[in-house]
Amino acid sequence: METDRPPAEAQPAPPFMEPFRIKSVEPIPFPTRDQRQATLAHAGYNLFRVPARQVTIDLLTDSGTSAMSAAQWSALMSGDESYAGAESFERFESVVRDLTGYDEVLPVHQGRAAERILLGAVLRPGDVSISNTHFDTTRASVEAAGAHAVDLPVDHATPVPFGGDMDLNALATRLRGADGPDARCVVLTITNNAGGGQPVGMTNVEAVRRLCDEHDVLLLLDASRFAENAYLITQRDPDYAHHSPRDIARVVFSMADGCWASLKKDGIGNIGGLIALRDPDLARRCRELLVATEGFPTYGGLAGRDLDVLAQGLIEVTDPRYLRYRAEAAHWFGSQLAQAGLPILRPTGCHAVYVDAAALLPQLEAHELPATSLANEIYLAGAIRVTDLGTLVFGRADPDTGHEEPAPRELVRFALPRRVYTKSHLEYVVQHAGGVAARAQRLPGYRISEQSPTLRHFTAVLKPWG
């Protein structure tokens, strides 16, 4: 049963009131200042390497960190663990087909596997993938196929409703120019995670579709946060103000040739992902790769109970009451961080608040990793873990000179796990982040001591300068 629209007689919840109540609780740790300092040093000053038992509030990611609903916990018990053709897959397939309109549905164990399989089937060495912004793992999958990832985000000096859009003029120039013959796919990431969690507008999707048709290029969606993108369209585009988020999502899916998604985000699950496509031949090639690396096509590396949980999550996630709570929570949290002295990206989206570390720490150059510095200091202040989305993540060493090529922006993401933290938890974060902002001019820079050639931020070892 869909939960798109509340009953007509229902009263809307006040802004930022959780539209749920809590049935299960989990204790959280409170490490001392000495423990935090020792932990961070032992982790090589990399928050990805910090043990969860040393974290009080974990805003590292919204991926796989959601709290499941009572209906999802109930769905666990109905999981069919048959190796092939399980009823759990049939339920999952039915929900995905109804949502996306795509007949070909392939479950996988997470989004990273989905993009690796799909992009591996689409791209060949020398091809070009064009996106509003490839996220870190997406870029890694493109490059693993021997292809080139090109980012064409909009560049606005002031906040706009749809800051996640693709630069249409730049896309047209690329498709009509030297990259045209090699452009194999265009990827719209909704919402644009690396671009500050900003949504992509319906007008932009339509225009990208027309350009892809004109040049016979595949249009794919990274739909990991499709529901939040759809909700923000209803709030920021008057033409869609009276549509449900689920209806908007269906329209967006209808304009693409297929999608992949990490269902650890808007699937409200702890594990799982999907590939959904129109083209049976492309689906066949993906299925062959899936069988070799993930498992049988009807379970794709997941337990049957996980498929049932995700099917339920894909229904719950488009509830406008839930999405309103997500957006209002992010807006309130962002406004509180701004009042505490942190320069945030506006307007806020749903899944995170982004802070401009370069603006807060002008004394640090990009090679001194200002986003890393801010994130680490926030951990030291209150055992709060956030994400560096600056040069450590999106920069890279020049292969010829060895010099560090900085990222376009030095952002720190305060991700909001779904249905996990309350207002008092976020007030705790604001208090400690504000204390860090007050002494921002004294924060140290960092340098990379050890790194891997791919996705280096997950395992890199860092050291403070000096």
Question: N- to C-terminal separation?
Answer: 60 Å
Structural class: alpha/beta
Total number of strands: 16
Oligomer: single chain
Measured by DSSP, the beta-strand proportion falls in 5-15%
Number of helices, counting only DSSP H or I runs of 4 residues or more: 16
Largest sheet: 7 strands, mixed
Point out poorly predicted stretches: 5-9
> What average pLDDT do the residues reach?
93
As a whole number of angstroms, the C-alpha radius of gyration is: 22 Å
| Largest beta sheet: strand ordering | 2-8-7-6-5-3-4
- Shape, principal axes of CA atoms: globular
Describe this structure in words.
With 466 residues, the protein is α/β, with parallel strands linked by helices. The chain contains 16 helices and 16 strands. The chain has a 7-stranded mixed β-sheet, sandwiched between helices. A 3-stranded antiparallel β-sheet has the order 9-14-11. Strand 3 (128-131), helix 5 and strand 4 form a beta-alpha-beta unit. The radius of gyration is 22 Å and the shape is globular. The termini are far apart. Mean pLDDT is 93; it is low at 5-9.
Please summarize what this structure is:
This protein is 39% helix and 14% strand.
SSE layout and pairings?
Elements: H1 33-42, E1 57-58, H2 70-77, H3 87-100, E2 104-108, H4 111-122, E3 128-131, H5 136-144, E4 148-151, H6 168-176, E5 183-189, H7 202-215, E6 218-222, H8 226-236, H9 245-254, E7 258-262, E8 273-277, H10 280-293, H11 304-316, H12 320-339, E9 352-356, H13 357-360, H14 370-382, E10 384-385, E11 387-389, H15 391-394, E12 396-397, E13 404-405, E14 411-415, H16 423-438, E15 446-450, E16 461-464
Parallel strand pairs: 1-10, 3-4, 3-5, 5-6, 6-7
Antiparallel strand pairs: 2-8, 7-8, 9-14, 11-14, 12-13, 15-16
